[in-house]
Design goal:
The protein is α+β, with helices and mostly antiparallel strands and 276 residues long. It folds into 2 domains: 139 residues, Beta Polymerase, domain 2 (2-Layer Sandwich), CATH 3.30.460; 108 residues, no CATH class. 45% of the residues lie in helices and 17% in strands. Strand 4 and strand 5 form a beta hairpin. Helix 6 runs antiparallel to helix 10.
Amino acid sequence: MDDEEFPGYVATRLAELPCVEAVNLGGSRAQGTHRPDSDWDFAIYYRDHFDPQALRDVGWPGEVFEVGGWGGGVFNGGAWLEVDHRRVDVLYRDLDTIDRELAEAREGRFRIEPLMFHLAGIPTYLVLAELAGSQTLHGQLPRPGYPQALRDRAPGIWWDRAELTFWYAREYHAPYGRLTQCAGLVAQAASQAAHAVLAARGEWVTNDKALLTRAGLRQVDEFLAIPEPDPSLLRDAAERSRALCAEALHAATAARDTGGTDQGDTTDQGDTDQSG
């Protein structure tokens, strides 16, 4: 089938699974930024309980994980499948979790959870970011705007982490020429700072693939291009990276405080219903 038919076909099959109330298309396919070889990211939204065996029984080849199989937390599992010769990811999303995290975000509260391949971990509001940037193919789901309380509070939380991580890299690894540990912590701190910048702007984050680019922190790459594990070079890389991040956060915070460009909305934009 062609790419026009494909999302509706998958959504219909997923919507038939027990306890599934809605299905989303996310990622680059939803945003129109995909390449011809990009995979397809779907999410199923269930209430109370979902049994992955029901997805296995559909018969699509691939690997179906248990709920919580990706470490637990808000990013609570999914499947890697092949459907009609296309790579398809299916994410499990608990609507009770969505309700809780939406209420928390409106009060400026969130947690940071570890997730493989994410340098800074993920904020629990990631599940709201997914909704904001996706297409609802079946059922009804909120499309949350960026809460002002979260925009006010999240940058400080992320920056506190970044500051401590930069400090540790500079004071406890750079002086001893430990290049790998120092560079690793600087990369982690830059990712934390990027979350702070984007939170100050009111921009949702769904993953960290383009995190530094979006936050204007790509120059950290140059700072970490260290030819040898020299303590002075390592310390300089950590300090320059921190200064770049601090400047970017200051600019984003100043724009927020003076009513500058806000790429988020402070209210929900209502339900979307594209089931059919």
